[in-house]
Amino acid sequence: MLKGKNIVLGITGGIAAYKAAELTRTLIKEGAQVKIIMTKSAAEFITPLTMQTLSGDMVYTEMFVPTAKYDMAHISLAEFADAIVIAPATANIIGKIAAGIADDLLSTTIMAADKPILICPAMNDKMLDNPFVQENINKLKKHGYAVMDSAFGELACKTSGAGRLPDIPDIIEAIEALLSPKDLSSEKILITAGPTEEPLDPVRFITNSSSGKMGYALAVASKRRGAKVTLITGPVKLPLPAVDKVIKVRTAREMHKAVLDNFSGATIVIKAAAVADYRPSQFFKEKIKKDNKPLSLKLERNPDILAEIGKTKGTRVVVGFAMETQNLLANAREKLIRKNVDLIIANNLSDEGAGFQKDTNVITIIDAKSKAEVLPKMTKLEAAEIILDRIQTLITGKGKRKK
Ligand code: CTP
Questions:
Q1: Nearest atom, ligand 1, residue 259 CA
Q2: Is residue 263 within 8 Å of residue 291, measured between CB atoms?
Q3: Pocket-forming residues, ligand 1, beta carbon under 6 Å
Q4: What is the model's pLDDT at position 401?
Q5: In terms of domains, do 338 and 264 share one?
Q6: Torsion angle of the four alpha carbons 258, 263, 269, 272, in this order, in degrees rounded to the nearest 10
Q7: Is residue 227 part of a domain?
Q8: What is the CATH number of the domain that holds 250?
Q9: Are residues 389 and 272 in the same domain?
């Protein structure tokens, strides 16, 4: 949710400075306004003109410039920022911040700022390993700076190791987390996502069209808001989100076991997975060969995981999903009561913008009083944020949760 956010991007002098161009483009694409401060050394690696063109704004390089209107840039930039990001951050800027040195525009802005600050170190692996650099990084962390781990891989000095600038999507995610309220930091959230696969023989299985996008969006948003997140995921083609624990499962019975194993430690359970209700009664060890006769398949019920945990939920907030094609509200309300859950997130497959593979969703949130909140089409991440807001209302007691 970087839309409308003001980001001050500090670029310091390392070879990874060229990657700040891509970072700036991405921030702008996400809807942020970006003002850039470059150190003298950074301008040796990438020109201020490049950064000015990409950010659509003047680039700040000097502490003392005569301007028509007197403006203390270090103060006004710190005030403008919702967050300050230094990418790449050299050993030098990290050392200066840790030592309380303010001798150029970037270090002075940092000293004058009371905004969240993200440091993205990038340097040679031996420099990163240097005990003084490590001490300085730890000092920054201790004082509330967010410091990303450098990525591992090939370095500009032809060696390989830790010290690469973290990947741009990871930096964007770290900025999102930096700007999110930490209102779920005392919660342990268990999330299920994706479909399950129910094997028939070594090459065939029954499944559904779930992409896992809604569950993964919930995992990302929960993590941003400070929760401890366990994600139990069926087979999907999505990059794994950086959460505390990921358990990969294939079948409904594996998901059932994983949920029960992790249920007692959870304070919130969100069951976004599209669990197969049935599995083939028999698993054929060898591939089934065809003949000319019709073949019928016998199916048997899988455990209903949500209904089972609804019975023993205690004070946990339990949220279920309902994907319907008809009578959305009536079916979803019935599901909420039958499965004893606090909220049902209902969506109708026939709504434009809703559905399994899409990045958007059209949801209706139904609570225990049967109140239905109909929401417009939005991204799955935006929908995830609203679902977490409603859960938060239940936790703080403003909405009543079921026992
Ligand atoms: N669910 C589950 N275990 C199952 C089936 C569903 O935990 N075996 C959960 C899903 O994760 C979802 C909710 O139940 O949160 C609703 O799933 P859905 O299949 O729509 O509901 P059913 O109760 O199976 O109802 P129906 O098949 O009649 O639509």
A1: 7
A2: no
A3: 252, 271, 273, 275, 277, 302, 304-306, 320-323, 335
A4: 66
A5: yes
A6: 10
A7: yes
A8: 3.40.50.10300
A9: yes
Q: Residues 228-266, buried b or exposed e (16+ Cβ, 10 A)?
A: bbbbbbbbbeeeebebeeebebbbbbbbbbbbeebbeeb
Distance 338 CA to ligand 1 centre (A): 11
Domains in the chain: how many in total? 2
Write out pLDDT tens, residues 291-313.
999 999 999 999 999 999 999 99
* One domain for residues 172 and 192: no
318-341 residue pLDDT tens? 999 998 888 888 999 999 999 999
Which one-letter DSSP state was computed for residue 294? -
**Mutate which of 210, 269, 306 to test ligand 1's pocket (most atoms within 8 Å of Cβ)?**
306
Q: Whose CA is nearest to atom 25 of ligand 1?
A: 335
pLDDT score at 65: 65
Residues 301, 209 within the same domain: yes
Whether 142 and 197 map to the same domain: the answer is no
To test the pocket of ligand 1, the residue of 304, 311, 387 to mutate (highest count of ligand atoms within 8 Å of its CB) is 304
